[in-house]
Design brief:
The structure holds 2 protein chains of 2 kinds.
Chain A: E1 4-5, E2 11-13, H1 18-29, E3 40-44, H2 48-55, H3 69-81, H4 93-100, E4 115-116, H5 118-121, E5 127-133, E6 142-148, E7 162-169, H6 171-176, H7 181-184, E8 191-195, H8 203-209, E9 215-218, H9 225-237, E10 242-244, H10 245-248, H11 251-260, H12 264-267, E11 273-281, H13 286-298, E12 302-308, E13 314-319, E14 325-333, E15 345-352, E16 362-367, H14 370-377, E17 385-390, H15 398-408, H16 415-433
Parallel strand pairs in A: 3-5, 3-8, 5-7, 8-9, 9-10, 11-14, 16-17
Antiparallel strand pairs in A: 1-4, 2-6, 6-7, 11-15, 12-13, 13-14, 15-16
Helix pairs in contact in A: 2-4, 9-16, 13-16
Chain B: E1 22-27, H1 32-47, E2 55-61, H2 67-77, H3 79-84, H4 86-93, E3 96-100, H5 106-123, E4 129-133, H6 140-149, E5 159-163, H7 171-184, E6 190-192, H8 200-211, E7 224-232, H9 241-266, H10 275-288, E8 289-291, E9 301-310, E10 315-316, E11 334-341, E12 351-356, E13 363-370, E14 379-380, E15 389-395, E16 399-407, E17 414-423, H11 424-428, H12 435-445, H13 454-473, E18 480-485, H14 491-498
Parallel strand pairs in B: 1-2, 1-4, 2-3, 4-5, 5-6, 7-12, 9-18, 14-17
Antiparallel strand pairs in B: 7-13, 8-11, 9-10, 9-11, 11-12, 13-15, 15-16, 16-17
Classes of the chains: A alpha/beta, B alpha/beta.
Amino acid sequence: MSPQLTLQTPLLLPPNEIPSYLDQLWTNDQSSNSGANTFSLLIWQPAWIEQQLARTGKISGPIIGTQSNALIQAARQIVLDQDLPHCTSPFDKCITTSLAKLSGANLVDDLRGQHIAASISELQPRRLITLAPTLKEDTELETLVAAYCPLPEEGGGQNACGDVVVMRGNIKSIEKGLNILEPLIPEELPSWLWWNGNLDEAPDLFNHLASSQRRLIIDTALGNEHHCLDLLKTKIQNDQAINDLNWLRLRSWRETLAMVFDPPSRRNALNNVVQLDIDIEGSHPVQGLLFAAWIADRLKWELTKCLQTPEKSFQAEFHRPNGSLVQVLLNPLPVGKPSIHPGQIVGMRLICKPEEPNQKDVCVILGAESGECMRLEAGGMASMELLEELVPMQSANVEMDVARLLRSSRGTTSPLLAAAAPIASSLLNMSCSD
Amino acid sequence: MGTPITNPLRVGLRQERVVAPQCLVIFGASGDLTGRKLLPALFELFNQRRLPSEFAVLGCARRPWSDDEFRQRMADCLSEQIKEEPIAWEKFSSNLFYESVDLSQPNKLIKLKERLDSIDRLQATHSNRTFYLSVSPKFYGSGCRALSNAGLLNDPRRSRVVIEKPFGRDFVSAQALNELVQSCGQESQIFRIDHYLGKETVQNILVMRFANSIFEPIWNRNFISSVQITAAETVGVEERAGYYESSGAIRDMVQNHLTQMLALTAMEPPGHFDPEAIRNEKAKVLQAARLADEIEPWNCCIRGQYEKGGTKSSPLVGYRDEPGVHPNSTTETYVAMKLFIDNWRWQGVPFYVRTGKRLAKRVSEVVLTFREAPVHLFDAAGGSPTSNQLVLRIQPNEGAEFRFDVKSPGSGMRSRPVEMEFSYDQSFGEPSDEGYVRLLADAMLGDPTLFTRSDEVEAAWRLYTPLLELIEDSPWQLPIHLYESRTWGPAAADSLLAQDELIWRRP
């Protein structure tokens, strides 16, 4: 699905005139329609890499803020050109840092907030407010506004419409202009904040926007791992609705592993797990830690020890409810062409050794590709009862993930994430204290 | 430590849709269905966290019960479930209310409206209402009319009506009822329930057909020689004699449940998984279906009635000796028939449909028999080669099996049939939800996929009209064949297939 443009050219208005303009838009111009009765979505859309690539002439623009193929390809080329480790994800912060050192002053159109991903627009958001910080520190705040109506690809228009507001400028000017935000967010509708950037950037702005009644969408694959997990844990403790795209991307791993143990004949093996190995791309450990934490929570294991090796592996020990030891290893792999999301899981191995005599050991291997399965088979696994599955690769872009979340969420934090995040945080903190 | 009863890794992975804030109004709340099916299903939805906190059930019937009395009676009906979840019941039952209502008295409807408004304020249910007509079929039309006159169906986005089976007694009455209910609200507000469509295995027919690329290319007249659809019960008429005497097996089972299985088995693939796309295809295939011999229906339909049977220690009475049944009743408790579907996919493929009470086994299944191999290269161990069969088991032992020939071990090259099995129990190990759990949730969500649309209902009645007219006008032409209880029905039903050189599958 291609992004959809707003129906009218966005109107540049002074910030203080935006609320009255929008009121007028829905009361005068569309007397039969007061807008979609859905939700409002506030988007932090820095697109630093896209802006840097455009500035240095690596992409031609315009800047739209979505993860296009051209953008991903250009970012991957930077990994090669700048001699960064090959396992660097195209949206890793170090790419922005590398690009910042390059010269260039190309000017391209900035259309952030005006291109709406079709997956999101078909949910008919009532109001999309995009905060678009610019690289140039001398850019003053500009506010743009436009109405839009999603036009389904199958044809047939719908009455429900929404509007978009864009606040563009340097971070300081956006912070200064935040006072116009509150009146713009319809009180009667659910309000979401999608922080589409690193979690450790602009902390004051984040804290201001992530007010307690707002539902949050974050991505713990982006940003310092301690900051990501601490934030997740704190928001869960404070009972704020929080959704993590990094957790959402684990769904096929959770589903495939659960599927292996659906037949009752296999379930006993879950009482006898002795070892869990998780392989991740690169060194961002949050997704791997969340996956290990989910398994530990579901099987009622208790964390006793965790340390990090100089190679950035995590070695943890848990105890099963009967006191037996489970060893967990989280292993970063230097993958050649990594996923666009840092630290994604590429394989896992679960070894179960039944205590009852005459029962065969069981080894479950899940891999993102068959090469990873073969790697995990090494070391005598073939002598066990081997259960292997390839995990379907997630091809959805981040906008589709957000749309899926908006469509299916009850507006609360997933109970599974709420249970796993504190364990993942303990794993990380314990590994540092040792 | 024993084997976990549920898969701990499965818990919480299902992304179920949550019902929007609303009030479910059950008319006929003092009846059997409410305590036996509807409230248990709602309690299950509550325990699955699929009901919002802004939720209420308003039971309505003529009896002058109070809220507490209604709660107590429902608690009695659900005593087994409550034992396991007493705290959950405490919370759930606080959402139960009762109002004495007679649908035929307009002033009572005004009172009902006031009560609903007060529940809206109390439970924050936002005037979002689902009205469930669990009443005698003769009140379906007047019930809808009364709701409409009271203004309770005015908002098509916030009000829905669920109507139980049977929807009409024949094509003409179904058409009239459709006209009446459609004059009270939009079609999108009408949910005609068929609890067979709530069964996991019935829905699985769609998934098996359209999620796998191996079946659809051979799912047609080029590869399939016949289809059998069976719904057999071991029980007799029990306490339903009053209703059953006026309905019989055709109206009670065939026109709705078996016809829905037929539609799902024979329909074309929908363009996308959308309620209207699916219901369009179901309606189209039913419109193309006909009795194998519409001019002389007695050539393609056998009616039966159970006689006494059982054993000396546990004898079973015959239908005519059941309490409430006329001693000379000619109501059929068994029916078998042959149908054709006149479209490109199924032209010439016979569909055999049978259902009956007091049969040898409780079983519902769809059996697709494939054409024989064009050349028989091998000796068959059983004497003659067998056809491949795909069996979709609806209940019990839910699952599917595929029968095909393999080499019989030994030095020769003899073939024999074996079965490849899929069983819900062995693969998932967890019981499926009762049909009403799924259907109630869908109705409250406003999702009509698993409910029958007006044109489907009419097409289903039209299909059996020649039979019903014959039974009405000259029943002697479609005589009742008696069969012993706990057997597989009358011998005449076997002859129906024997004339096509086929036999009924013995499940």
